[in-house]
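Training component of the fellowship. As part of building independent skills, the fellow (R.M.) carried out the full modelling exercise for a liganded target. The chosen ligand was C6P. The inputs are recorded below so that the supervisory panel can assess the work.
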Amino acid sequence: MIELLDEVQLEEIRDDFPVLQQKVHGKPLVYFDNAATSQKPRIVIDAMNDYYQRYNANVHRGIHALAERATREYELAREKIARFINAPSQESVIFTRGTTEAINLVAYSWAQTNLKNGDEILLTFMEHHSNTVPWYQVCERTGAVIKRIELNPDGTLRLDDLDKLITERTKLVAVTQQSNVLGTINPVRLIADAAHKKGAVVLVDGAQSVPHMPVDVQALGCDFFVFSGHKMCGPTASGILYGRRAILEAMPPFMGGGEMIKEVWFDHVKYNDLPYKFEAGTPNIAEAIGLGVAVDYLTRIGMEKIRQHEKEITQYALDCLKDFPEITVYGPYDVEKRGGLVTFTLGDVHPHDIATFADQDGIAIRAGHHCAMPLHKKLGLAATARASFYLYNTRDEVDTFIAMLHKAKKFFGACPTGRAMGY
Ligand code: C6P
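Fellow's submitted model of the complex:
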């Protein structure tokens, strides 16, 4: 049986995050914008400072003591991250600046080499722009076309006709493991199996899943898996592309420069081995080291425990929101099928007004299209408001959030509206 975080542990965890110990507009900060970026524990900040203060040097180049230490720590981070996602080898784990860069790497290197006029890329209607725009660009350059998996009214994917949607022309299926708007957790393994039956390659966007649940890339059966460090207690400008080794070996490099070469002659070049072939130039060394420490931190607490905690908080928030006939919640009600975030509208109040109102109470939520405009167009909305939770959030904070919504509803005179989607 998985234990929940108890009060004492939760208090200890909150103490690890300096940013949480402050007031905003005179009120204790309630940070519910974790899907945009998470806060960072002291040990991650300290690890990055330590690199700059004690062993700042470039990696894989110098043979002096500082350079050797920097290289060791950088590669140790790769090792930890490979273990964290159960990658079969460290060579298949490539440091990037985040999810966006990792997807662009695959788009430029793999897709442009392998796709041609008339080929199909299958997406879903819930993809983030990072898992949308690079594929539009591939289509512009190759003549490939985009198709999409439809949504059910509860915000889950309509998979009944998946076998028909994936055809012999489908070369790539690119799907998010968890939607940053609906919260929906998608059955990636099932989709990957269907795609592989037709010979398609599968890319999984793990930006919203890796920070919040145990992830095993081998069990998911995907060919590429991408995520960002800054959403999982790690630094900004850190992220990962995992790829199946054989596919990575066959791909041309994304960028040229130092580090990604074995030998350069007057007119040609021999590329380096994995993973360095895809890490041109001086990498984000402090960020990679910081991400390794973030992985240590999350592992120590336990990803299953974090998932359970978020399920509990999310269920509590969803139950409280049921008392508002003016509120529409988007995405599945069942917390087994959704991650730790709640996206909603309050009558016809503009979500930006709700976010500004919340800010006055020290509550940080996000409002807008959340970089998922096709999904919002599908929902017939310009914007939504989103509260997204993490391991350090509490039921008391949910109470503060709900009290703010009661005030907002009165202040803006919100009226009940039809619930087009959600529950
Ligand atoms: N979503 C949000 O507030 P980057 O910016 O590269 O670290 O991550 C992009 C990205 C890709 N996929 C999904 C599912 C995401 O949620 C994000 C980032 C943030 O929802 C910022 S727009």
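The panel noted the following from the submitted structure. The chain has two domains: 7-31+302-412, 45-299. The CA atoms of residues 149 and 160 lie 10 Å apart.
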